[in-house]
Amino acid sequence: xxxxxxxxxxxxxxxxxxASLSEELHAAGAAPATYTEVTLDWPLTPxxxxxxxxxxxxxxxxxxxxxxxxxxxxxxxxxxxxRVFDACPELRFIGVCRGGPxxxxxxxxxxxxxxxxxxxxxxxxxxxxxxVGLMLAAMRxxxxxxGELKNGQWRGDYYTYAQTGREISGNTIGLVxxxxxxxxxxxxxxxxGARVLAYDPYANVEAAAAxxxxxxxxEDVLRASNVISIHARxxxxxxxxxxxxxxxxxxxxxxxVNSARGGLLDYAPLPALLESGALGALALDVYDEEPPGxxxxxxxxPNVVMTPHLAGATRQTAERxxxxxxxxxxxxxxxxxxxxxxxxxxxxxAPTSAS
Length: 355
What we know:
It is a single chain. With 355 residues, this protein is an alpha/beta fold. Helix content is 34%, strand content 17%. Strands 10-9-8-11-12-13-14 form a 7-stranded parallel sheet, sandwiched between helices. Helix 1 crosses helix 12 (315-333) and helix 5 packs across helix 7. The protein is elongated and about 70 Å long.
């Protein structure tokens, strides 16, 4: 009987991981597994680098102890470092409930013959809806006016023409990134009546056009859009993809939304752009430093909406991620090839079955 470590946290619960795999095994007519369940302290304690892996939570020695006898591990944040693979020779499969297994040392996993799978687009719907929510909050001063009213300010001047917001309907909105999240955002915005442009060097231009979205060079998207929403992946090539030079191309008073990754945007020029009115509003869920320090300049800048990296925080995201990764584990245990393998060389070199 296969033994499984369900290393959950306070978002994707250990019992949800176990139940999801149990359901998958039952549906496949496979033998049930046994489980060890542990709970990491994320998000109550921030994640961070752990012994060479990124965005991890928990102690390596505690993880090694929890893995005793386990062939399969399901997690979101546990730190699977080289030391873990050296200490746990029975381990054969790790399922990571994230868009990428950044908390796993893939080289060490591959050397150890451990298959690492992940859950792409698990939070795409949640992130897309949240981005549109930020957009509305910034365009219509929802968050700013809420804070002012709670502090005793009734801003009747918001009804003057100069202070009024903008509607999504009839507006041109540019998406920087047209992957799983960007495509959902586009559909939502089109339902509002927006014209949607996109910049994405990897997008299928013909397919996007069939969906009513024009894919253009970044500079053209920026020049034409009254609202920009960022949905690209952060890579060395996309670091500070939006910066002082190209933000100057935006129409005066444009709204900028970043709910993707902080590193995609150069935050340094933003306070001055807001003060001058070149940027009409800014909505952020991600930051160049998380959390921002107490003297961060954007805290005192006008027309800024901020949330603490919440775009993917829905119950459906947690449940969906657990289901995806449980299905991956069930495929592996059945001797079949999982769909989302981060180190396919392991499968190419050895049988997929954990037995």
